[in-house]
Every structure is written in structure tokens, then in C-alpha cells.
Specification:
The protein has 786 residues and is α+β, with helices and mostly antiparallel strands. It folds into four domains: 164 residues, Glutaredoxin, CATH 3.40.30; 344 residues, Glycosyltransferase (Alpha/alpha barrel); 94 residues, no CATH class; 83 residues, Glutaredoxin (3-Layer(aba) Sandwich). The strands form seven sheets. It has a six-stranded mixed β-sheet, sandwiched between helices. The protein has a four-stranded mixed β-sheet with strand order 20-19-21-22, sandwiched between helices. α9 runs parallel beside α11, α11 runs parallel beside α17 and α25 packs parallel to α27. The termini are far apart.
Length: 786
Amino acid sequence: MSHLSSPPKKHKGEHKGHSLPHGSERGSSSRDKDRSATVSSSVPMPAGGKGSHPSSTPQRVPNRLIHEKSPYLLQHAYNPVDWYPWGQEAFDKARKENKPIFLSVGYSTCHWCHMMEEESFQNEEIGRLLSEDFVSVKVDREERPDVDKVYMTFVQATSSGGGWPMNVWLTPNLQPFVGGTYFPPEDGLTRVGFRTVLLRIREQWKQNKNTLLENSQRVTTALLARSEISVGDRQLPPSAATVNNRCFQQLDEGYDEEYGGFAEAPKFPTPVILSFLFSYWLSHRLTQDGSRAQQMALHTLKMMANGGIRDHVGQGFHRYSTDRQWHVPHFEKMLYDQAQLAVAYSQAFQISGDEFYSDVAKGILQYVAQSLSHRSGGFYSAEDADSPPERGLRPKEGAYYVWTVKEVQQLLPEPVLGATEPLTSGQLLMKHYGLTEAGNISPSQDPKGELQGQNVLTVRYSLELTAARFGLDVEAVRTLLNTGLEKLFQARKHRPKPHLDSKMLAAWNGLMVSGYAVTGAVLGQDRLINYATNGAKFLKRHMFDVASGRLMRTCYTSPGGTVDHSNPPCWGFLEDYAFVVRGLLDLYEASQESAWLEWALRLQDTQDRLFWDSQGGGYFCSEAELGAGLPLRLKDDQDGAEPSANSVSAHNLLRLHGFTGHKDWMDKCVCLLTAFSERMRRVPVALPEMVCALSAQQQTLKQIVICGDRQAKDTKALVQCVHSVYIPNKVLILADGDPSSFLSRQLPFLSTLRRLEDQATAYVCENQACSMPITDPCELRKLLHP
């Protein structure tokens, strides 16, 4: 391996001390310091020359990407590059013409992908090099996560990090030999330019092709061995108690006492970690470590919600914070963050009873309903970080979200009555949210000077302190601030909006169904559960092929707003099945409509057929046929910005066993956990979601059965009681007394449970034994939460 540039900075999700889950480092903020290009290579490469900077005026002649559906590929449709989408046509051309493949992977809301497109892919000379000497292939990582994972594995293994855009050079047989992330167009003092890299690789391919091919084969073989996850000689998974404690200790070591979270900077929302801490608290709540786990999770959630990573004007959360204080974010907004954080804040409310957390959860879902929802019930992928400050101007990161003092003063000039000093609504809001005349963004976080004089809203004081400062009533301050934020929200609507990635992914839609279903159930709000129901209906109508029983990965919004598909369709990956099944199980428990449970069972059967490794255990990320030609077939072994599909599948298998009693699913769960034993033993903090599944498997899943009519008040009261208590290791079953119902056929013991005196009655069953019948919600709560 050789580097063609200075030693790179740490991978954007890397944490000190131990390997915490990366925050899916989707693109980097324009304010990241020392963003040097990294090139990893399987062979040494000679120096190359540098020429004059060519013109980079884009030609308005479309390339073949104009026929694609992906918003990301369409962004590159007018590059002067002979781009191909991922597919056989490109591979055949590379083999026929004996050219290396240049693979460029990104996504439509990635800041540094935009930068590289503008600097390099719109450059005429670079475009000629890419078109004449390489077969250039563009991939949307959200459409083809399998392609992304395979080559990111290479980049991370042969350099010190990864991220997007990801640029990898492949042999015509798709084996990688050089890889990197963002490249500037030309050489700098410490950085190698993209044009230079292309010239060097072109020369190497001509002079040392056989050496390149041999080294590429050697690296691929090493990656195959390194990435293998298998049961091997192990009979059972490791001890849950041991792995749990080790995971907690690793998190405790990296915890930020002052601001919460688990790194210095950048700081990512880590819902999988927060979920683990809540689960750890529940099983250790009488111990000091248990109390600490709860405090770590609640404090992190509170600091995030008060910070600038949360959009206080329009709600929802940005991708990550560029500083330790959660103050200045990378402004991109992702659907998967909103989905998981809604659940995390709902769980925090269940545990603490503090409405602060439930209000944040409701705000997240309000944002998704307003900005990321298709009229047919599906959910869009993301909103960009960049937008023009005014129409016709060049896009800047954060332009849509930041404020000057002058703007706020003009929008909120009204005097505040009853204050101890002259005060306007604008001054009150600026004090509470830390706005200053000079701007509250450090120059170190704004190297290009795009955010001078601008402010990110971040809560600086409690309502009580702000009220005391001006001699006002707390509720009056709350009302004044909310009114002020609403006026800012209405004014912001007149700004040019960030780009919306209107692609819809089955996996992320599944996560969002969970977000609405869980939050709606916890808060007892049918309106939120209806959003989940509409999301599930959308998935079944637009992203499910009835004939084959398979999910589709993607669908798109046409210019007219209707739902469109690629032809041929992009079929689902493991994460699509795992996340949709989880969403359907959550929706069944929230709505008690058994049709969603039945569909979940059918999808799990399909998932088992397409992805299960019958030899090594666990699930592959992609179908064997879909990934044909790729050098690796991987099993995702890290819970990051999204949980690993294997971690979610372990939970799903446990729950499905609880709903049906089918032993095969419990056996699969044990086999899956056994396959990942070594990873959990060594770095459990990389798989906190799977560690939770391991604990659930080695404890006993509660079957909470409510006998009653779904629409009856007394039934609803018992169901709401169950949802109000934090019980992650349970299934909630409605037994309506119909012996021919789906659940009655699955679980014959339900027919033995009777209503007491014709009232809705609850039973808590464990280890094939049920509690005495309970009709009083208060008594049920005591039993569930002793």
C-alpha cells in the first residue's frame, strides 16, 4: 500500500480509545479542517506531472445518466464525462477495451460529493481523461448499498478511513486496486490532485498492469478472509452478562461528561448506543452502573435537543455536530436519523416521564410529516445541507438555517410587557438561543467565511433562567419563544429550500414506520399511528412484488408527484427486509391489526430464503444473484448511523418466535448470534444493537396478552398501560376470542386465556407460564414495572 498524499486525518466517525460505531460518515462538512485526499493502493505508484488548470465550464449535453431515476445520478447527467450506471454494459466495455474502471460512489445530499462534481467532474480535461482512459461508473450508494459496502471495505482496509465521495479504481473483473475519498482537482502543498492521480493510474495500467492485477487479487483474497463471519466450531453465543458489561465499560470510557455523546468532534447522534444504555439500565437499574447508563443516555439526548444539531425553527435533527457542544451542525437532514431519534426520545419519555423528551419526539415527526412525506404515505430520503442564500446565488452550506441579529430584530420587534427592562420579543429569543451581532459560529468552523455574522440557534439557558433574567413568568417566556420561532419558520419559507432527495428507500421507510408507530403508541396518539399505517400501505402498494414476495429497494417521485420505478426494478437488500419487518412488528403492536403481523412473517420467510447463510450462520447483505461479479459477499458487522441488518434481524427473529412459537426462528437467532460471537466478545461497542438482542435471547421474552375487543375502551386502557412502560423484550398480543384468527392459529395456548367477568383482561406470560388475570391497568403497570 502507498499513499500519494500526506497522512490523512482520522476517519470522520473514529473515536478515541476504542472502536465506537461510526456515524455513517455521509459526506463531510465544509467546515472540516485539513480535509486531505487519501489514496490507498495495492501497488507503489510513481510521481506524475501537473499541468495548467483547464476550463471547467460545464457542457449542457447530457450523458447516459440522464435516463436514470436516482437524484444523485441525475445530478451528474450533464458532466462532460462518459458516465455509465453500474451494470453489465460498463463491465463489458472495460473487458473489451482492456481499460480500468473508475467507480465513483456518493449520494445526492453529500456536500463533498457536490464539491468534487463541481471541481473535477465538470472539468473538461478531467472529463476527457475519465472518458478516454477509463470506463467511468457512477453509483448512488443508497440504491446499491452492496456495491458501496464492498469497496468501502477495501478503502478502509488499505487507508486510514473512508467516507463519501468514494472513488475506487477496479480491474475489468471488478477487483479494486486503488481507492480514496474526496480529491481536489489539482495538487496542493500537502495534497495530491485528482488529475495527477488519473495520470499516474493511466501510466501504471499501461506499464505495470500484471503487477496491478496480481496485487489486486492478493488484496481481495485477504479481504475475503478478514471479512468472514461464521459460526465455525462454536456451539453457542457468548455470555450476555459478560458482553453487556464490557460494552457498557467501553462506552463509559468514551463518554463526554459535560456535553454528552461519545467523542470530541465531530459528534454523531448514536441511537443504537442510546438504545443499548436504556436496555442496560433496565437490567441493572438497582446498581450504580445501571443508574449511570440511564444518566448518560438522558443527558446526551437533552444536550442534543438543546444544541444546534436540532433545528429549533423547523424541528428535526441535522446529520452531525462539527463540535463537541452539539452547536454547529453539518446541516444535512436524513430520514434514518429522524426515525431512530423519534424512538429514542419516546423511550426517554417512557423512562423519565419528562415531557421534554416527548415534545422533541413529536417535533421530529412533525418535521417528517411536513418535509419528508409523499402524499401517498411514503417517506423521502433526505434534505441537503447546501442551498442558495438568495435566488440566483451559489449554494452555501447552512444558508437555509442560519440567522443574523438584524433579521431576528426585524421579524420580532414587539415589546415584551412586564419585563424588568426594555425588551423586544427578538431580544428575548436571541438571549435564550445565544445569537450575537458578530455571529456565534467560530471561524475555525467556517474556513471559507460563508457564515460570518450568522447564528445557529442553540438553547443557552433554561426557561426558568431566561424568565428570571427578565422578571417574567416561565409560561409567558415559553409562549413568547414559541411564537417567535413560528414567525422565523414562516419567514424561512421564503428562502430557497435545500435540495430534497425524493428517492424512497424500503429500509428507511421501514425505520420511519417504526418511528411513527412506537411514538404514537407510547404517547397514545392515533394520529401518529395512522402515519405509520399509511407508510406500511405505501410499502405494500409500491415497493412489494406480490408474485415473487420480494421487496423493491427504491421508488421515486416523478415530476408530476406520482410514484415511479426503475426498469428493471432495484430489488431489496437485507436491510430493506429487516427494517420493514421491524416496522411491521412495531405497527402491529401499536394498532393490533394482525394483517401487518402476517405480512411481517411472509417477508421474514423471503428474507431467510434470499439472504441466510446456511453454512456459516447469519445473513448476507445482498442476494447471491444480485451481487454476482462483486469480489465480496459481506455480512454487515457494525451498528452505526443505522443498525446492522443482522442486529435488527436477531431482534425480529426473537419477536416472531414470541408471536408464533415457531422454533425455527429461535434456532436461527441463536445461530446468528453465535456467528457474530467473536466480534461481540472483542468489540461489543461496535454492535450495541446486537448485544441487546443477545441479552433478550438469554433472558426471557415476555408475551403480554390482552384478551378483549380491539375497539373497546377497557382493552385500549390495558394496551396503553403496556405502551407507557419501557419493556424492550416483549411482544404484545391481542386475543379477540376468535379461534380462527391468525394469532390463535399460531399460538394455541391463547384459547385457554379467558376474559374475567367479561372485562378486557391481561396476562403476562413467560417460560410457557402465565400470570393471574389482571383487569386493572394500575395493577398491570405494577406487574410490568416492579
